[in-house]
Specification:
The chain is mostly helical and 218 residues long. Helix content is 69%, strand content 2%. A two-stranded antiparallel ribbon has the order 1-2. The radius of gyration is 20 Å and the shape is globular. The termini are far apart. The relative contact order is 0.18. The N terminus is likely disordered.
């Protein structure tokens, strides 16, 4: 009986790997269900580390990698993780990948690691990653889960870049450290301060809601 059950679970695992997922799982995270501009989740790093485009890109990519890898592993092990400990198991999986990313960023650039600070470790409790593990990866095939994680992750990167680029442009007159405006430009210092995160998020949310409203009217 146990051998038969194990054989059935193994077949289910390999079948999920071979399943051909739909690209809809990828596209929805980029626009339709964008985690920041539509779902408005994961706001801690969105507001805290987007004072420059570089920080925004680094945090977005780190989150996206953790999201894709945790979705992959959660989906792969979904038939083996007991329901009673699923949340604890998901957090353990996410924390493992966050630790790897943390050391990788530190090895690549110590200055960047210092700029991101504790927010790298806080990826563990990012509600975006845990929600995708619980709501999607634990219920779908590996292929669909990876595409879902990739779409949501890139959607998160896009959102952080939108905020980081605008804040750095208006706050420092540059993007990725390269000057855009002449020396006579008066920087809006408030944009690189914590309050600037809220102002910039409000501007982008207004912009995307206007686009959404126009699309619905058409």
């Amino acid at each position: 009986m146990n051998k038969s059950l194990h054989k059935h679970e193994s077949k289910g695992f390999f079948a999920s790997l071979a399943e051909n997922p739909s690209t809809d799982e990828f596209i929805k995270g980029l626009w339709k269900d964008n985690p920041v501009f539509v779902q408005v989740i994961g706001m801690c790093p969105v507001l805290a580390v987007t004072n420059t485009a570089e920080n925004a890109l680094a945090m977005g990519l780190a989150t996206a990698v953790v999201l894709v890898m945790s979705n992959f592993l959660v989906s792969s092990l979904r038939n083996f993780i007991p329901k009673q400990v699923r949340i604890a198991s998901y957090i353990l999986i996410i924390a493992t990948f966050v630790t790897i990313i943390d050391y990788a960023i530190q090895a690549i650039s110590v200055d960047l690691h210092k700029s991101l600070g504790a927010f790298i470790s806080l990826i563990v409790v990012n509600c975006l990653i845990l929600s995708r593990a619980e709501a999607f990866a634990s219920k779908n095939s590996v292929g669909k889960s990876v595409l879902d994680g990739l779409g949501m992750g890139l959607g998160f990167v896009f959102a952080l870049l939108c905020l980081g680029s605008l804040r750095e442009l208006l706050g420092n007159g540059s993007i990725f450290g390269f000057a855009v405006f002449p020396d006579s430009f008066q920087e809006w210092i408030v944009m690189i301060l914590p309050a600037g995160g809220f102002f910039t998020l409000a501007i982008w949310l207004l912009f995307f809601n206007v686009l959404k409203a126009k699309k619905e009217v058409k």
